[in-house]
Amino acid sequence: MQKLTELLSSLAGGALDSRLVSIYGPQGLSYARERALRVARGFAERFAAGDGKRSVLLASAPGRAELGGNHTDHQRGRVLCASIGLDALACAGANGLGLIRLYSEGYGELCVDTAALSAPVDAERGHTAALVRGVAAGIAARGFRVSGFDAYVASDVLSGSGLSSSAAFEVLLGCVMNALFCGGAIPPLELAAIGQAAENVYFGKPCGLLDQTACSLGGVSAIDFATPGHPQVEPIACDFERSGHSLCIVDTGSCHDDLTAEYAAIPDECRAVAAHFGADALRGVDPAAFSAEIPALRRSLGDRAVLRAMHFFAENERVSRQAAALRAGDFAAFLALVNESGRSSAELLENLWAGNAREQPIPLALALARDALGGAGACRVHGGGFAGTIAAFVPHGLLGSFTARLEAVFGPGSCHVLRVRPEGGAIIDC
Fold first, then answer.
1. How far apart are CA 11 and CA 90, in angstroms?
2. What distance, in Å, lies between the first and last C-alpha atoms of the chain?
3. DSSP conformation class of 352
4. Angle at alpha carbon of residue 330, lines to 329 and 335, rounded to 5°
5. pLDDT tens across 190-237, in order?
């Protein structure tokens, strides 16, 4: 940690440039430096009251991109994911007041009393304060005293895009509290679990552990959720830039707000199939036994549940092949599997089309992307589906025309070229 004046001087004078480059890459240095300065100055204006001697830290947690494993995590399956260059960033310092005072750009200020962490607050459910209280509760439950802190936060992780802006924020909070109150003693996977519990219990969203794990670890990871609460993580060394491709996320600008029933139906139907075999998730079902029972499952649960279970079994195995292809440096095989995954999501999982609405942004984005790629690269739905984003691996030579084609329909700035970030949740000024 540094004094606030020292942090501002280090950022402005370039003393932290090498650290910023290690996180954001050389091309992102100028933006990263100016953004970090803005956040530190924001802290100074809101919380320092002219006291440049306050001890502060600069923390960051990335969003994540799904590379393989569409809707497999909630059935204890395998996922291939990557942390990305977009992140949540905070300047924070302990205040000793027993209060967490946090200002987030675009969302305003909140205050959480650390004397009341043992239970969720009903009025906070679905709001940012619930995540703050939940993460603080998870830290305190591990025997550490959260004596209060101030934080100024900015995030460029696209909200509602499947890039896990909530998980990035939770991991950011965990990193800040881990550094301020725990001496860095809590490992990344445990910080991920704290974030998930905050979202499940305090915020009220029954998410899995995938998003927080990906945001906390960094790089490309193959994650196996076979054992609940204890994911097996394998880092995968790969460089998409060297493959001649860019990872692009296309934001269709469509909203998830009225699609809760569509999302909930996927895990519900998968669990119903699993329950037919006495299991709590499809990972506990033998694929051969499932195949033999398809006639009975059609009668009891309907065809869509059967199709979604078929997607899970194929997708879960496909993630292992994707990881093997990346390990072997066989990018052509990896791209073929990305396209295969996309077809499975469309034909079996059925998470592209939102009811009977006239607006079908995901199928339209994928059709335009395939046309722009002309048989090269790969594309698939990204994240939950129905609305939001698609992912595409675009050859460098097609990046300009691809971006122009998609942005002509979905608007300027809708196509985001993502850099895989090698580091997960991190303290920057160290």
1. 14
2. 7
3. S
4. 125
5. 999 999 999 999 998 877 788 899 999 999 999 999 997 788 999 998
* SS3 per residue for 133-189: HHHHHHHHHCCCCCCCEEEEEEECCCCCCCCCHHHHHHHHHHHHHHHHHCCCCCCHH
| Segments of the chain assigned to CATH 3.30.70.890 | 245-418
Residues of the chain with CATH 3.30.230.10: 2-60+86-214
Phi, psi of 363 (to 5 degrees): -60, -35
Mean pLDDT, to the nearest integer, of 351-366? 87
Domain 245-418, what architecture? 2-Layer Sandwich (3.30)
CATH number for the domain whose boundaries are 2-60+86-214: 3.30.230.10
State the chain's mean pLDDT as an integer: 94
Residue 356 is predicted with a pLDDT of: 66
- Tell whether the model's pLDDT for residue 132 goes beyond 90: yes
Residue length of the chain: 430
Q: What is the pTM of this model?
A: 0.90
